[in-house]
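Milestone 3.1: sequence recovery, worked example.
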């Protein structure tokens, strides 16, 4: 059973007292294929107080079934937006900068401008027009960041399942583009697709081989 998170960090920054607090997290830094995905989530304090997000936890600690169920709840009850950085942007910028770009895009798409963004990790996206705090381990300790981690994970996993049907053989529906032994073997056997990150060493090593796109 996962440890339940509370809303103490958000409340410390004024959530429930007129300040709008957004939690932000990203997923997809490690895969060899697919975009990086970020989510920005504003949890309504009244719904938090009512206990509707009691089961929200770090997405890595949840089963796929629970993530999907919680994602539906979060998208129904909270304000949620997604940001993406493409494979081309990852290769051009590097994965860290692409991740920060996806987070900035998620925040920019929120219909209401937050007073503060709580962002998982050590580094803040550059040029944010709002106040922000970087929180290491935020997905495991801050409720709104944990909610964002769930939404980002579900959205990216869903896209990788779609891409798996477009590029069969790499196992993306199950490995989500991460460098599993089966994915690495398929990369050598089948070559590089347009969804592979050519700036990543295992992909770069076979990018010129027969069968590569």
């Amino acid at each position: 059973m996962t440890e339940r998170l509370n809303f103490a960090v958000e409340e410390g920054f004024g959530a429930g007292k007129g300040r709008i607090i957004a939690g932000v997290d990203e997923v997809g830094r490690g895969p060899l294929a697919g975009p990086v995905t970020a989510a920005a989530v504003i949890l309504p304090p009244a719904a938090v107080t009512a206990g509707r997000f009691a089961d929200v936890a770090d997405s890595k600690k949840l089963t796929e079934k629970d993530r999907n169920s919680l994602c539906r709840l979060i998208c129904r009850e909270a304000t949620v937006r997604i940001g993406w950085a493409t494979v081309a942007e990852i290769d051009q910028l590097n994965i860290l900068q692409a991740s920060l770009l996806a987070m900035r895009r998620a925040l920019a798409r929120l219909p209401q401008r937050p007073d503060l963004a709580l962002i998982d990790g050590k580094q803040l996206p550059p040029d944010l027009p709002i106040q922000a705090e970087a929180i290491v381990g935020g997905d495991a300790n801050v409720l709104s960041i944990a909610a964002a981690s769930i939404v980002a994970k579900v959205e990216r996993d869903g896209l990788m399942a779609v891409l798996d049907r477009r590029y069969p053989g790499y196992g993306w529906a199950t490995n989500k583009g991460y460098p599993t032994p089966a994915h690495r073997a398929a990369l050598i056997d089948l070559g590089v697709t347009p969804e592979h990150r050519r700036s990543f060493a295992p992909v770069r090593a076979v990018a010129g081989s027969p069968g590569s796109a």
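The longest strand covers residues 21-27. Residues 143-166 form the longest helix (24 residues).
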